[in-house]
Amino acid sequence: MSEGEMSIDRKKGEDWWATDIIEMRPGLIRLRGYAIEDLIGRISFPAMIWLMLRGELPDERQAELLGIALSAAIDHGPQAPSIAIARMAATCGVGINSAMASAINVLGDVHGGAGEQALGFFGEIAVSMDFGRSLEKAADERLDRYFKDEGGYVPGLGHRFHPVDPRAPRLIELVRRFAKDGVVNGRFADIAEAVEANVAKRKGKRIPLNIDGATAVVYGELGFPPPLTRGLFVLSRSVGILAHAWEQSQKPERNKGPLPREWLWSYRGTKTRKPVE
Predict the structure, then answer these.
(1) Treating both helix axes as pointing N-terminal to C-terminal, what angle do 226-249 and 211-221 enclose, rounded to 10 degrees?
(2) What are the extents of the domains in the chain?
(3) Which CATH number among 3.10.105.10, 1.10.230.10, 1.20.1530.20, 3.40.710.10 corresponds to the domain 81-249?
(4) Which burial class, exposed, middle or buried, applies to 142 when counting CB atoms under 10 A from its CB (0-12, 13-18, 19+)?
(5) pLDDT above 70 for 6
(6) In angstroms, what CA-CA distances link 229 with 108, 132, 178?
């Protein structure tokens, strides 16, 4: 093989996993062009997340608001399927990584995907406003289509445990504060509140914004696309998953299932019978 052919083959190999994210060779690590040693101790973990996902460093206030949203959704107790799974996995003697992976794997459309759905919903209203609709008209039209063609729970509203999700009002309050300071413009907060008000009018009762809707507001204000909202939720909830997996791993319990062993499931199958001889 000639030197030219070897060069072509090497270029093909180097381009196999071409990336804009990281440059690495012996003695050198650069993330998005920044040497890792220049980042360590100088930027926060939320700022690092922003850099990796967006390609540029945020300003301090943007990173602060991102960190606030990430902190808000870290845990919701062992009744949450992902947390329960992490704890059950830990009792089976697997390592922390396996317990975390088992839990994270259930963060899908139903459990963990509502933030992405909410931001997509709010984003459609924002696009309608860009085409000249008023906020109220855009929200009304989107909800008309939703109840006619889709139905179910409006993404970002309501909670099966909390009459008012205690995390949501605080997040919206902080978004308003950051908007007042010019960090964000407050548009998605306006949209979320318009959706909440419109649904209350239709239903005859208030169905408050929940954590998924509130974090969707934050991520929308900061310019994250909807699919990344789910990934950010996974990052956030992973903290709670890790904490519960670790706590459970320190206990002597083994093979702990979803119910106490004296509580058995309901059997609704065929009544007792014997095989024909």
Answers:
(1) 130
(2) 21-58, 81-249
(3) 1.10.230.10
(4) buried
(5) no
(6) 12, 27, 19
List, in sequence order, every residue forming a beta bridge with 25; answer none if it has no partner.
28
Nearest to 124 by CA among 145, 109, 108, 110: 145
Given its phi and psi angles, is residue 24 left (phi above 0), alpha (psi -120 to 50 degrees) or beta?
beta
Question: Phi/psi of residue 25, each to 5°?
Answer: -155, 170
Query: Which helix (H) or strand (E) covers residue 73, if one does?
Result: none
What span, in angstroms and rounded, lies between the C-alpha atoms of 4 and 61?
51
**Is residue 171 within 8 Å of residue 72, measured between CB atoms?**
yes
* Predicted pLDDT at 68: 98
Q: What is the mean pLDDT of residues 42-51?
A: 98
Which residue is associated with the tokens 């059950």?
88
User: In this structure, are residues 122 and 192 in contact, taking their beta carbons and an 8 Å threshold?
Assistant: yes
Check if the beta carbon of residue 81 is closer than 8 Å to that of residue 87: no
Provide the residue count of the chain. 277
Pairwise CA distance, residues 82 & 112, whole Å: 9
Percent of the chain's residues with pLDDT above 70? 98
Cα gap 231→183, rounded to integer Å: 23
Is the pTM above the cut of 0.70?
Answer: yes
